[in-house]
Amino acid sequence: MPLGMIVMHWDDRMGADIVARYPPESSIEDKTLMQLYSQHEYSGDSGIVTMTSGPINIASYYTGVDDAIYTILLLSAQEDGEIFEDGLSEITRTITANIHTGTLDAILPGLFQRLSVYPTLNDEQKLAMIFGSTIKRAIITRLREDVAVSKSELNIWLKDQHREGFFDIEIELNSLVKMGIVKVISIQGQPSDMVFLVEDILVLRVPSRELISDPVDHHLPESLKSAYFTEIKAYFEEYHPNESDNIALCENVLLEPQAYEVLKLIRQAMVTRNDIEKLRKKGVDDIDKVLRILWDNKLLVILQDEHGNEYYCLTADVVLKKIFPEYHIDTIKHQYQTRTQSPEVLKQALEIIKDRYYEMQKEAKRKKATA
User: Fold this and answer.
1) pLDDT at 286 over 80
2) pTM for the model
3) Which of 39, 75, 160, 255 has its CB 3.0 to 4.6 Å from that of 57, i.e. a possible disulfide?
4) CATH number of 202-320
């Protein structure tokens, strides 16, 4: 568990300026700040450096010379700073966007909590972090349209699209490669590595099949069964998928540790307030705030029985998964006919799609055999 986080701005005249810190007692020696500054200066680029200072490890993410912001994570001696790279990159972008708004002290505790659980995120949450990232989502959107884009062109395009922020194309692509979303391949005749989309990301609200099939078996009183069905039906009659809603679900629920713990609980059964109170052992210390988050994001309905007992029920579950980009077949055909993409690149794109298709067939057979 990280010990604390410090945000520093480097001024060429004044030197190191501590902009914010969490918890408030977090501190770091001036000589250590100078060492971090020197290491980042030596590399010359935005990115992460790690070092050990006495009994603690340190991971520092630097935005580059334009903003000169350093997000410094203080870790125990047993923690490896490298595993926080993607998380530090994402929260540093948020910090940079809010550094002059006067809200940094208010948002830092939440960012620190999110970063603290980063190494323990499951696949659903890792996909949520990718989809919630403006830069990564832009990369995926571009690759949906073009199948493949050179790394150099992608870097220029992103800089043009996101003039106000910062990013490191290598870090962004590496995290997408780790999750199997993209592949980066060198192709003869191409001046830069080519980036290919291997799998797309789907985000969608759906009714919970298990809860709807037998709500009584999932701890809902028989007297409330009809009311639950009415709530679900009314919700999905008005539901229309849209990207802003999907982003809000990722940011506010799937990547909010306390909200996610409650979501996992109500995915399993209809629960009472006492059931939710038991999650305090898992760090859910502000129950009312979490319930408000789920309510505002239309994931929660509260039903009351004839005795005044309240039951907290899932309205719409969130599906977040990787999907096979079958639509690329038509795009590849069109690009070949219009000669808008190199034949060698298109051939490689077809190979990637074919390989992924056969991998999916093998995975399906393994799951069937295991079942």
Assistant:
1) yes
2) 0.85
3) 75
4) 1.10.10.10
